[in-house]
Structure formats: structure tokens, C-alpha cells
């Protein structure tokens, strides 16, 4: 049952995180939403509250461990627990390695890998104490395949997929903490807005013209995993648009 679960969501200001926060609030979950764009979080808070839901928000940069700790701390101070963590914050500034966009590599590694680890570290003590919990990591189809201009991004998502499996082996059997890796294909969100590689303009346009997934499609997959009975550990969900080949 999702009702009354305390669910922490990163990257909640737009896209999958925003959609998932709204969908879970409708089902009675208590939402703890974090993101860098506070004004977007305030809009989300207003929408959920006006719809009768419960939510607290926190300006959160997942590359800062102190921000991740604070996000979880607020959840515990308000509701005494964290039942689910959804590690959704992520960046995808695709580029060819030869372009040497090293600042973008660093940012992806900090957000896509370290951010997931920092937030996970923040919730593990309370979940272990309760002997229950659920960590949902948003990986990608890029966590299974590699494609040109995606070397670093794919590396970060392969890391998230591997980290998720490591968490499952360590925590599921021994501590009753379920682990799920969600692996979307092309989703119509703001994710491509961070791409600065001029050579990829045609690729971006092709993606925009594709009938891609909606954020709500991924929210539904997350809800399916969270809502499964406690004895069911939905480890991986790969969701592609019907028209996506790879």
C-alpha cells in the first residue's frame, strides 16, 4: 500500500520526478520533494496541497552531501521515517569524448553517480533501523547499452544499474530493503536541454519528433514497483517507446 508512505524524491522540479510526486500524492503518500529550482518546488507544493495531498519541499543539490542529508532529515523530523527513496535527479549532456567537455563529465558523475550514493547513504540508517524500506534508482536504457556521444552518460547509468544490484544483494535479504532500477528509453522531458554538442542537433531533433514516453509512463512503472506486495522485489523495469529501436 502506498497510502501514508513517506517518499523522498530528488529532481522533483520537473519531468519524471515532478510527475511521480503528483501521482504518489494522489495515492495518499507523504511527499518529500527535493530539487535545485526552489520556485518549481513551490509550484509543486501548491498543486499537491490544493489537491488535498501532503508534501514538504527542500532546495537540494544532490552533489552536496549536506543537502542530501538535510532532505532526509526533514522527512524524519516531519514524519519520523522514510519508507521510499526515489533517486531521480540526473543530467544527460551528451557529447563525443574527443570534444573534451570535461566540466560536463564531472557534472554528470557528480549528479548521476555521487548524488545517488549520497541520498542512499542518507536513508540507509533509518531503513536498517526499521528493517524495511525501498530504494528506487532511475537508471536508463543507457545503463544497458552504449551509443556514440554517450560514453560518459552511459558510464554513469551503468554505474547506477550496478550500484542498484549491489544494494539488492547487500540489503534486500538481510535488511528487508527492496531495490528497484527503472530504465527508461526516450522520454519527452527537459533532459536533452543540457546537451551543448553542436554535432548532436539532428539527434536531438529526431528525439523530439519521436513519439517518446511521457513522464507519466515512468511514474506508472515506479508506482507498480512500490505498490508490489512486500515479498515482491521488482528489481528492474526497462521501458522503451514502441518506436525506439535501441
> In DSSP terms, counting alpha (H) and pi (I) runs of 4 or more, how many helices?
7
Write the CATH architecture name: 3-Layer(aba) Sandwich
What is the total number of structural domains?
Answer: 1
Rg from Cα: 17 Å
Structural class: alpha/beta
Question: Which strand order do you get reading across the main beta sheet?
Answer: 3-2-1-4-5-6-7
Structure notes:
With 246 residues, the protein is of the alpha/beta class. Helices cover 47% and strands 16% of the residues. The N and C termini lie far apart (34 Å). Helix 1 crosses helix 7 (215-227) and helix 3 packs parallel to helix 4 (102-130). It has a 7-stranded parallel beta sheet with strand order 3-2-1-4-5-6-7, with helices on both faces.
Summarize the structure.
This protein has 246 residues and is of the alpha/beta class. 47% of the residues lie in helices and 16% in strands. The chain contains seven helices and seven strands, in the order βαβαβαβαβαβααβ.
What structural keywords apply?
single chain; 246 residues; alpha/beta; Rossmann fold; 7 helices; 47% helix
Would you spell out the secondary-structure blueprint of this structure?
Layout: E1 6-10, H1 15-26, E2 30-35, H2 38-50, E3 54-59, H3 65-79, E4 84-87, H4 102-130, E5 133-138, H5 151-175, E6 177-184, H6 201-209, H7 215-227, E7 236-239
Parallel strand pairs: 1-2, 1-4, 2-3, 4-5, 5-6, 6-7
Amino acid at each position: 500500500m502506498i497510502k501514508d508512505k513517506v517518499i523522498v524524491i530528488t529532481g522533483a522540479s520537473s519531468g519524471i520526478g515532478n510527475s511521480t510526486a503528483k501521482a504518489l500524492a494522489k495515492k495518499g503518500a507523504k511527499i518529500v520533494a527535493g530539487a535545485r529550482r526552489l520556485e518549481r518546488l513551490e509550484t509543486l507544493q501548491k498543486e499537491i496541497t490544493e489537491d488535498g495531498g501532503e508534501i514538504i519541499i527542500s532546495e537540494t543539490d544532490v552533489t552536496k552531501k549536506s543537502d542530501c542529508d538535510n532532505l532526509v532529515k526533514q522527512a524524519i523530523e516531519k514524519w519520523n521515517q522514510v519508507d521510499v527513496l526515489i533517486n531521480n535527479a540526473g543530467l544527460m549532456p551528451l557529447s563525443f569524448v574527443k570534444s573534451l567537455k570535461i566540466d560536463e563529465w564531472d557534472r554528470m558523475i557528480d549528479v548521476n553517480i555521487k548524488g545517488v550514493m549520497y541520498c542512499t547513504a542518507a536513508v540507509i540508517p533509518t531503513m536498517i533501523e526499521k528493517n524495511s524500506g525501498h530504494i528506487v534508482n532511475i537508471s536508463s536504457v543507457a545503463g544497458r547499452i552504449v551509443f556514440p556521444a554517450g560514453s560518459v552518460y552511459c558510464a554513469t547509468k551503468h554505474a547506477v544499474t550496478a550500484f542498484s544490484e549491489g544494494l539488492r544483494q547487500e540489503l534486500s535479504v538481510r535488511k528487508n530493503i527492496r531495490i528497484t532500477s527503472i530504465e527508461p528509453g526516450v522520454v519527452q522531458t527537459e533532459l536533452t536541454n543540457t546537451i551543448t554538442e553542436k554535432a548532436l542537433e539532428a539527434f536531438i531533433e529526431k528525439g523530439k519528433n519521436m513519439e517518446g514516453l511521457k513522464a507519466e509512463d515512468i511514474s506508472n512503472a515506479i508506482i507498480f514497483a512500490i505498490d508490489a506486495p512486500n515479498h515482491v522485489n521488482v528489481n528492474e523495469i526497462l521501458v522503451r517507446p514502441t518506436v525506439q529501436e535501441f
